[in-house]
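sorry for the late reply, my laptop died twice this morning and i had to redo everyting from scratch. anyway the thing you sent over, i finally got around to it. pasting the sequence first so we're on the same page, its 139 residues, then the predicted structure underneath. double check i copied it right bc i was rushing
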Amino acid sequence: MQTCTYEISDLLYHTSPMILIDNIESYDAETVLSSVEITPDSPFLRDDVVPSYVSVEYMAQSVAAYSGIKAKNSGGSIKIGYLASARKVALNVPYFSVGDKLEITVKMIWNESPMAVFDCRIDRQNTIVASSHLNVYQP
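ok and here's the structure:
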């Protein structure tokens, strides 16, 4: 794994305020490790919590960052991608609270361009709080 030197806003097709993840910690040819900290300014925060179903978007944006890193490293440009489906979604907690630090891991398990499948999980304090297989499409 190597450290990511790109700004998250340079890797995603999204713009603020819809960039939900904070950092890309590291990556390799198949994997991206990213993070988000739930703060009082976090999008989708209501009554001091973010519903755990938002974790699907945290995972999807981490997949998008994977694609952005590959594009940047090859001299290409960021392209739009689509979340085609989320399979085997497991939400092990009902919500995330202000102060929670989430670590997102996405690993490509199948790629037949323009479709790919990623195994994704989110950890909080070394406990899996959400997981899914995301099917993505990038035209």
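The chain is about 15% helix and 45% strand.
thats about all i looked at so far, will dig more tmrw
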